[in-house]
Fold this protein.
Amino acid sequence: MNRFLIPATVFLALAGILYVGVVHSPNKSTMQSALLGKQAPAFNLPILGDPARKLSSTELAGRPWVLNVWATWCVACREEHATLLEIARANQLPLVGLDWRDQDDEALRWLAELGNPYTVVAVDREGRTAINFGVYGAPETFFIDANGRVQYRHVGAMTQEVWQREFIGRLSHAGLP
Amino acid sequence: MNRMRIRAVLAAFTLAFALQAAAIDITVLPNEELQQRYEALTHEFRCMQCQNNSIADSPVSLASDLRRDVKEQLLAGKTDDEIRASMVSRYGNVILFRPPMSGGTLWIWIAPLLVLLGGVWVAVRIVRRRAALVAGDDSVLPPEDGAR
């Protein structure tokens, strides 16, 4: 009996550690953004549908806003699109789209077919701005406060529940809407 | 005829994979020193979409964007540490295959050492106990079966 006590304890301890490691492994949806609490990266990108004009991040400063990284090649983006439309209808925060590594004509067709939830869409064809936001897979949605700081990042399809809890819930202490 | 076609398809597949493996990264930098630093750095960063590949070994577009970023920073005269810091500031420590030895990551480095020490302790105990058994036993070994 005693012979097996120590090996069994060691085994159980190791198994426990590994179990915790597997369960809490950096799952894509729980990986925290490195930008939390930091200034959102600046950008100056052409506007979808009006490429002669540019959207600069400085124009968005002074009030909280939301950045949604999407693309027509992204399956989960189609999944969350209905939710984005609902969010846009409630009109509580400017919803800025970042069309990531995409084709303008396909993106325009997508918005014409499914509806356009965005206040404005910036085109990031080379993916430079996405890298600066630490994006590793679309869709990702960032909440940026009135001081230009990233307060939250959601990875994966947006849901009403996440929107209400993490975005609207932060609105009261994020400066004026 | 059919067999020929199957062979051709197989050959095409093999070739496609071989080409992909060889041509994930064909970036050439203007001098040997930059090239070496580029290759070393791109092997240090994790491809965030395919967590166990480095950005040097991954064919996904995000990895190629990150390689371009490394290249541009090298050409702009940034040091290796500055480039690492810029990656960590955007993606966090997860992007490094070798996390820094500080704060929360310290246990990653210490834990294997503790396990090793535990193993040594167990081994020493077993050896001591057996040595004590042999020392305390002065009986003569019974003759082996074959000798009878």
Q: What stands out?
A: The interface with chain A takes residues 48-49, 51, 61-62, 65-66, 69, 88-92, 94, 118, 122 of chain B (CB under 8 Å). Chain B has a mean pLDDT of 83.
